[in-house]
Structures are given as structure tokens and as C-alpha cells.
Amino acid sequence: MNAHDEAAVQQAAVPADAGLLYTDHVAVAVRDPREGVALFVDALGGRFLFGGDNDQQGIRIVQVVLPGGMKIELISPLRDDAPVARFLEKRGPGVHHITLVFADVEVAVARLTACGYEVVDVDLSAPHWREAFVRPRSGLGTLLQLADTTLRWDTPAASGVTLDDVLAGRVVFTADERAVLRDG
């Protein structure tokens, strides 16, 4: 096979596009989620969607939907060694990442890698949420979370889970990404 043929085969292996379906949310890092609730819920009229603690990652999440449908995810550290704690120490509160949902995250990874973007932390182990990230230095200063999912992330919290429960630390995410009361 000559060099021209090899290049054609390599180019044919690159997906024509990344299969982007939609932007799911913009994540904002805050030291205390009440700061974000004050702005995005109280002042701007957002509505609590869901939230809880991800004990494995050491973060508390509160997702709200703003009038018009845009989702904001507030993320705050539960412990000092959580990556978002380091982010806050270095940069202060602000946009942490943008989550993009794809038909198939593996196709997105192949396309972005072929286009020269640095894709890291690829995790395909959970069928309900497969993800990867484009490093900020490669993504115009923005951390991009690439994901595909079998779950709905636009529906309100499970019955009985309130924003007050989340803020008080009474809600935890299970291994299959369900937010449940810690007692139940």
C-alpha cells in the first residue's frame, strides 16, 4: 500500500462528524451550592431539577433549569482532595465545564482525536453514562465533558427529594446514577 492509499484508509476511519446531539448543561464550581441557588434560582427564576452527593468524586451537585430551558449544574466540594476543590483554590468560583451529549461517545472521541484535540479520562465502564473529556488547553480554555447516556437528565428529582434535602447532604447518587435519600 502506498502513502496515498494509507492516508485514504486513515481518513476513511475518521467519522464524518462527532454525532453531537445537544448541550446538556454548563457546570459552575462554587464553594457552597447556596451561592449558586441564590443566583440561578432565587434571582433568575431557575427551578430545581435534581441533585445529590457523589461520594466517590467528593462533590455535591445541584442541577437547575432556567427559564427557556438551559441547565446549570452547581458543583461544590465535599472534601479538600476533590478535584473541584483544587479548581476553586486555583481559579475561584466560575464555569468548570460544559457537558455535550453524543449519540456515541466513542465516535466523538475518535473524531476529536483525529482532529487533533487532546481527549483524556475516557470511561466507558458504565452503560448508563459513558464519558471523556477534552482538556482545556486543547479546547479553547474550556473543559468539555463528552458523554452518551441511556438516562433522562431533564426530568425533576425523584419523588420526595427536595432542594433542601440536597443542600443538607441528605441525598446521594447511587452507582446507577439515581439520586436517593441517604436514609432510604
Automatic annotation (TrEMBL):
Species this protein is from: Actinomycetospora straminea
Keyword Metal-binding: yes
InterPro entries membership: Glyas_Bleomycin-R_OHBP_Dase, MMCE/EMCE_epimerase, VOC_core
Xref: PROSITE patterns: VOC
Metal-binding listed as a keyword: yes
UniProt protein name: VOC domain-containing protein
Domain VOC stretches: 22-149
Record key words, sorted: Metal-binding
Organism lineage: Bacteria, Bacillati, Actinomycetota, Actinomycetes, Pseudonocardiales
